Amino acid sequence: MSAAAEPAGPRPRRLTLSRVGVYVFLVGASAFFLLPLWAMVLTSLKPMSEIQQGDLFQLPHTPTFAAWSRAWSHACTGLACNGISVGFANSVKILVPSVVASIALGALTGYALAFYRVRGGNLVFAILLVGAFIPYQVFIYPLVRIFAWIGIYGTLTGIVVIHSIFGLPFMTLLFRNYYSSLPRELFNAARVDGAGFLGILRHVILPMSTPIVIVAVILQVTGIWNDFILGLTFAGLANQPMTVQLNNVVATTQGTVEYDVDMAATILTAALPLAVYLVSGRWFVRGIAAGAVKG
Q1: 78 lies in some domain
Q2: Between 53 and 41, whose confidence is greater?
Q3: Which pLDDT band, with edges at 50, 70 and 90, does 287 fall under?
């Protein structure tokens, strides 16, 4: 006699008051965070004649992308009126090497602290851990003096080094926790087979690191792209990132305030980290959960 077929999935539970409460809370929280974005999108699509009527959430009668084009190519960021496209290019130049360097150094340091008993390793990890939670504003003035003495203050190299340094403590903590959750038998087997420090990292550890690397990329892209104070202080006038130029657009006081251009520029500035998170959000949750198994 054949066994009874297993059900395809769990039966849907009946709707209870607690579940209704959860749904109401989630819908309310989503609306709370999405309403400002909705207002920004509507404002960016309206001409100034409609904006001046004062109805924030009214749909535009004549939608136009003129504000988006002006924000990208012609908005004034101080004396120059080249739009925020210049800041976008600068942000990309800062972002790519900073993300690569901070993640590479964090992965290497986290791997060493997780699998090797290095003399003074616990002390180094404690120092990095403390450094991850000290406000970086404390270090700004000493670093300005040091970078000016070295000769990299106000350069692209200087701002990349700054982001790599400030990203190292948290990246080390993130990778160290993740690697501590991996089976140590794989590491021991690779050592028995004769693999060295970098060989084990390349052929054994990194192939299993995809979830945590994606988490690190999301965190670093978001943090570096949205940074304002470090870019303003260390990048120099020629390398100002998009956030600094956005502040200059919004803070312009000459003539009429162009709210449509301000909103379009703000959305354009936030688009890249938002897109990165939407594309890889499920990996973010998976990597955070995997790295939280062991501390």
Answers
A1: no
A2: 41
A3: low
231 plus 165 within the same structural domain? yes
| 12, two tokens | 């849907």
Same domain, 92 and 228: yes
SS3 for the chain is CCCCCCCCCCCCCCCCHHHHHHHHHHHHHHHHHHHHHHHHHHHHCCCHHHHCCCCCCCCCCCCCCHHHHHHHHCCCECCECCCCHHHHHHHHHHHHHHHHHHHHHHHHHHHHHHHCCCCCHHHHHHHHHHHHHCCHHHHHHHHHHHHHHHCCCCCHHHHHHHHHHHHHHHHHHHHHHHHHCCCHHHHHHHHHCCCCHHHHHHHHHHHHCHHHHHHHHHHHHHHHHCCCHHHHHHCCHHHCCHHHHHHHHHCCCCCCCCHHHHHHHHHHHHHHHHHHHHHHHHHHHHHHHHHCCCC
In a domain, 4, yes or no: no
Q: Are residues 122 and 29 in the same domain?
A: no
User: 126-177: per-residue pLDDT in tens?
Assistant: 777 777 777 878 888 888 899 999 988 988 999 999 999 888 888 988 898 8
- pLDDT greater at residue 76 or residue 222: 222
Range of the domain at 26: 17-64
pLDDT tens for 217-263 read 888 998 999 988 888 888 888 888 888 888 887 776 566 777 888 88
The maximal CA–CA distance of the chain, rounded, in angstroms, is: 86
